[in-house]
Amino acid sequence: MVPIEHVVGLSAILFAIGVVGALTRRNVVVVLMSIELMLNAVNLAFVGFNRLAPAGAEGANLDGQVFVLMVITVAAAEVAVGLAIVISMFRNRDSIDLDEVSLLKW
Amino acid sequence: MTPVAALFYGFGALAVLAALGMVSNVRNTVASAMSLVVTMVSLAVIYVLLEAHLVAAIQIMVYAGAIVVLFLFVVMLLNLRSDEFGPARQPLLKWAAGGLGLFVLVRFLRGLEAFPEAPAPPDGFGGYRMLGIALYTDYVLLVEMASLLLTAAIVGALILAKRKID
């Protein structure tokens, strides 16, 4: 069995890559993909920690995996709404460059 | 090295490489989405190694299947020119983002301590039966809220993507 700290370390590496991607890229679609990467890193940490305590007071303890399912659900909803916003932004501005969207900038 | 450890390190390295490729590819958004698929599938393999079988199946079906296809669909719908995006934003912001990423990474890794050895899981751990029982007894309210959220998201996406609201 792999030590759990290696699983969490892999999760931290993926999260850091996602942070850099979300902050540096100008393409909105790639920024959304980086956010997905961060959510996946968190899911990996959830599954790893769940593996650390597989049994609870009464039978199996699957809290971590249940929360992974919830994160996947929220990610799916977020992608649907986010991509709809991207499409409507492209329709109105003819671009999906993040630097072009400055209507709300102070 | 046991086969499980070899698979874990191999697919973990593949996931990190594909993630780096996704973030650093500035020319082709479709290639970025394909790298994202590689990351998702590698993570699904790691979930199987961690005894989370149902989560691995859902990861492949929902992430590698539905979500990335949605990304590809939108990329092709928008029909972007490949020269539209420069390498990145201002150099200062780039360095700041790199520094922040490094800080997050170091902070996480330094916070890690040696966890105890993972005990053997009970029979059927991570299978559809145990997870289904947990979902529909302890977490049934969460499941109902998730269904409401998905309905609201679908309606919101439809209205946002519609050309004109009558």
Compute the separation of the termini of chain B in Å.
64 Å
Structural class of chain B: mainly alpha
Number of helices of chain A: 3
Mean pLDDT of chain A: 88
Structural class of chain A: mainly alpha
Strand content of chain A: under 5%
What is the number of beta strands of chain B? 0
What composes the largest sheet of chain A?
Answer: none
Mean pLDDT of chain B: 86
Largest interface: A-B, 73 and 89 residues
Radius of gyration of chain B: 20 Å
Written as H for each helix and E for each strand, in order along the chain, the element string of chain A is HHH
Instruction: Tell me the span between the first and last alpha carbons of chain A.
Output: 53 Å
Say what oligomer this is.
heterodimer
Please give a structural write-up:
The complex is a heterodimer of chains A (about 110) and B (about 170). Chain A has helices at about 5-25, 30-50, 65-95. The mean pLDDT of chain A is about 90. By secondary structure, chain A is an all-alpha fold. The longest helix of chain A is centred in the last third of the chain and has 31 residues, at about 65-95. In chain A, about 75% of the residues lie in helices and about 0% in strands. Chain A has 3 helices and no strands. Chain A starts with a helix and ends in a 13-residue tail after the last helix. Chain B has 6 helices and no strands. In chain B, about 30% of the residues are buried. The N and C termini of chain B lie far apart (about 65 Å). Chain B is an all-alpha fold. The chains are: A mainly alpha (about 110), B mainly alpha (about 170). At the A-B interface, α1, α2 and α3 of A face α1, α2, α3, α4 and α5 of B.
Summarize the structure.
The complex is a heterodimer of chains A (106) and B (166). Chain A has 106 residues and is mainly alpha-helical.
Question: Which terms would index this structure?
Answer:
heterodimer; A: 106 residues; mainly alpha; 73% helix; elongated; B: 166 residues; 6 helices; globular
